[in-house]
Write a structure and sequence with these properties.
Layout lengths: L1 H16 L5 H6 L2 E7 L6 H16 L4 E6 L7 H10 L4 E5 L22 H9 L1 H9 L5 E16 L14 E4 L3 H9 L3 E4 L5 H7 L4 E5 H6 L8 E17 H5 L3 H35 L3 E4 L2 H10 L1 H11 L1 H9 L2
Parallel strand pairs: 1-2, 1-3, 5-6, 5-7, 8-9
Antiparallel strand pairs: 3-8, 4-7, 4-8
The structure holds pantoate (PAF).
The site of pantoate has 11 residues, from β3.
């Protein structure tokens, strides 16, 4: 399977490599864009990808042909980002799962209970702090065009309903390969199990993990109700996403085409956020109909979870600086 995925990525490079050259060359030729997504075409990622493509096609007279590889068709997000770094994959929308392995500062947005609501998160990501972190991806050999989002993450599992930190004690919970998240679930006494997304559904089916955590955008589009009984609307952490293109592609474009990709990314983010706004309501209705046992943490219950994260917050202050974290919390 792994070999097949690498082969697909290599094939894209073979197709595009010859074409990604000088801006003048691209101005006349059609360039194929291999576009990797972890989620399904009808997800928040799919909607954003369609919009990005639509804008670029319109602005460049169709000189770029997008080939979508949804549902982890080119592997897990870490492999995909490495592919974009190498130039074997041209574009992607990824979660913040492994981003901090490329730019450590990106992990600050993964701190639990950092953002009050979607508006707060969007304000910070669209502001100077968000831009500063996007710019840092340049040093990692990546062009980060915009912050998108998935929504707030919630816990699903097959063991028990969750109301207190005691309810997650020992819970074998798949987390993203994200040190900030792993620290949080360790502090809560769970048994965090970092795992690439393509392995998660079978691990849930086989019972090697009890649960996972993701936003409603993913829980609905990945049909998690088929393999998970309990959904706790914990909203424990905001889940940003990022729109990335390869430096090889970017450096070969004219400034006009770069502008088209930036405009497309901005419109893709708007489409993605509209999807998230909608699924925050429709997702709960859908998952109720699909038979999930759904509970929501009250503000008081969330406060208890937050208090249990005191030790984790000490680590976050050491890693990211208290001024930055306090500045994000205070932003409005
Ligand atoms: O949980 C994850 O790894 C991510 O949220 C996912 C599902 C790959 C979407 O980016």
């Amino acid at each position: 399977m792994f070999l097949q995925k690498r082969t697909a990525a290599t094939a894209i490079f073979a197709l595009t490599g010859a074409l990604v050259g000088s801006g003048a060359a691209i101005a006349q030729q059609e360039v194929k864009i291999g576009y990797a997504l972890a989620a399904a075409p009808d997800s928040h990622y799919g909607v954003a990808a369609e919009k990005w493509e639509e804008v670029v096609e319109a602005e460049t007279d169709g000189r770029y042909e997008f080939r979508h590889f949804p549902s982890s068709g080119l592997g897990g997000e870490r492999e995909v980002i490495e592919g974009v770094q190498l130039g074997t994959i041209e574009a992607t929308i990824v979660s913040s799962g492994t981003l901090s392995n490329f730019v450590p500062e990106a992990g600050v947005f993964d701190i639990p209970f950092l953002f009050r609501d979607l508006d707060h998160a969007r304000t910070v990501l669209d502001g100077p702090i968000g831009q500063e972190i996007l710019d840092k991806f340049d040093d990692a050999g990546l062009v980060a065009l915009a912050w998108g989002e998935q929504g707030f993450r919630h816990i699903t599992n097959n063991r028990n309903a969750i109301e207190t930190p005691e309810d997650v004690a020992g819970l074998k919970l798949r987390t993203m390969e994200n040190p900030t998240h792993i620290t949080a679930f360790e502090a809560l006494g769970a048994a965090p199990t970092p795992m690439a997304w393509p392995e998660v559904i079978s691990a849930l089916e086989q019972g090697t993990i009890d649960g996972q955590e993701n936003p409603l955008s993913v829980i609905t589009s990945a049909n998690l109700s088929e393999v998970q009984e309990h959904l706790t609307l914990s909203g424990h952490v905001y889940s940003p996403a990022m729109l990335l293109v390869s430096k090889q592609l970017w450096d070969g474009m004219t400034p006009e085409d770069q502008e088209a990709f930036s405009k497309g990314a901005a419109e893709a983010v708007t489409a993605m956020r509209a999807f998230v706004d909608d699924v925050e309501v429709s997702g709960i209705e859908q998952l109720t109909e699909e038979g999930m046992e759904i509970g929501e943490l009250s503000p008081e219950q969330k406060a208890v979870f937050q208090e249990s994260l005191a030790a984790a917050y000490e680590q976050y202050y050491d890693t990211y600086g208290q001024d930055l974290i306090d500045g994000i919390i205070a932003a409005d």
